[in-house]
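## retry 2 of 3
previous attempt timed out at serialization; input unchanged, resubmitting
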Amino acid sequence: MNTRPQWAASGRLPGLPRFWRFKAAARIVRAALYKTRWPLLILATVLAGGTLLFWLAETHANPLRALLYVLNLVTLQAGPDDLPEPLPLQLASVAIMLGGLLALAGGAARVIQLIGDPKERQVAVVSMFSGHVIVCGIGRVGYRVVNELLEFGETVVGINQRTDEEWLDHLQRVGVPVIIGDARRKQTLIEAGVERASAIVACTSDELTNLDIGLDARELNPNIKVVLRMFDAKLAEKVSRGFNIKTVFSVSALAAPAFAAAATRARVDYAFKLEGQLLNVSTVTFEPTSPFIGKTLEQIEDELKCAVIGAWSSDGVQLRPERSRVIRPGERYYVVGDLKAVRALNEGR
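## retry succeeded, writing output
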């Protein structure tokens, strides 16, 4: 089964700017500047301090000439004959030369490290993020979660231990940074910007690993929203109650209503439980012979104790249509209700 979304084939998300690659490149440049900020600050201090020193010492006629002399020192263009006569200024010239060279070498080393190490590039990009969502475990479930978050307009950072997942390349190609590492290590979470993130989704195939990730994330960022994928409904309930992690989803608890509803004769698109009550989402197309033709949405909702959440049209889905709207033959609506209401609407009785 192909789990790739439609945008993966084009390499660009719906609504993503046409020149998004240039924006991604600009983000890399900003990350490089951030990573080399200390060498750049040292170099700027050396240039400014040297220029001021030689101008005030009156070895050069104006600040521009003093700056050119300092630049020649840093780039090794100045020879022994160019050094000023007083010994203190000669020593200062040597110190400026060494300081400038060390700053340049440090900056160059950081840039080379950034270019040569893919993980360093990802970490550098993430360092520019704030308020993003971290998804741990880019498997089949994690990949789908990332897709949905991107559709919601969220900024996403992925963490995955393996490098051979087929969808990692697709995500990185559309600008989603993926940190390769063990999400159970606090350092990996820090590299993913957990201290600045708004939420973290732990959706690996091991529920204890997910719990470990969630607790570490909460320790590093007490305000982060933690979403855990779990398989045991009882454990999920205990985790939610015992660790104050409100968003815990039991896979079995989520899947069971959908399986049960699908096994009935009712036309159910989705099913879920709300406060213990099974609710179903159904697409209802009203036939000309339906007894509901001519009634308003308000009348149907009051009669069947359901909720009409959307109406289909050529322009797309209209959410929460007017309750005074009258049902006409061939119209399509999206309804939430129990199985009795869903059956009545679809079977016209």
